[in-house]
Amino acid sequence: MVSCPVECLDYGEPDFIERNGAWVLTVVGVGVGCIGTLLTYFLKSRCSKIACCGLNCERDVVKLEPFQIQVMDTSSNRVPTRDVTSSGD
């Protein structure tokens, strides 16, 4: 019976993914992050017609009335004590 250590087994040259796995993962992550950012921008946009990279989207944007808007101080995350539409009484 012949016993052989793992080093004597020849697996050949490592493939592209084995050699560059971290690089591929980084490129895929950056690509997905960019696409997610672009889709978030489109979602928050007030435009009714959007065209980018051959993709077109025409949509109905919900109209906001002044009484539907609430201004918040983002530095302290506090809700304002007075309504924005009030006259300051």
Please describe the topology of this protein.
Layout (H helix, E strand, L loop, with lengths): L15 H29 L4 E4 L2 E4 L31
Antiparallel strand pairs: 1-2
Structure overview:
With 89 residues, this protein is an alpha+beta fold. It has a domain of 46 residues. The chain is 33% helix and 9% strand. The protein is built from 1 helix and 2 strands; from the N terminus they run H-E-E. A two-stranded antiparallel ribbon has the order 1-2. Strand 1 and strand 2 form a beta hairpin. The longest helix is centred in the middle third of the chain and has 29 residues. It is elongated and about 85 Å long. The termini are far apart. The mean pLDDT is 77.
Q: Which structural traits does this protein have?
A:
89 residues, alpha+beta, elongated, two-stranded antiparallel ribbon
Q: In percent terms, what proportion of residues is strand?
A: 5-15%
DSSP strand count: 2
Distance between the termini: 97 Å
Low-confidence stretches: none
Order of helices and strands: HEE
> Strand arrangement, largest sheet?
1-2
Question: What is the C-alpha radius of gyration, as a whole number of Å?
Answer: 28 Å
Helicity, as a percent range: 25-40%
Specify the structural class: alpha+beta
Estimate the global geometry from the Cα principal axes. Answer: elongated
Helix tally equals 1
Largest sheet: 2 strands, antiparallel
Query: If you average the pLDDT, what whole number results?
Result: 77
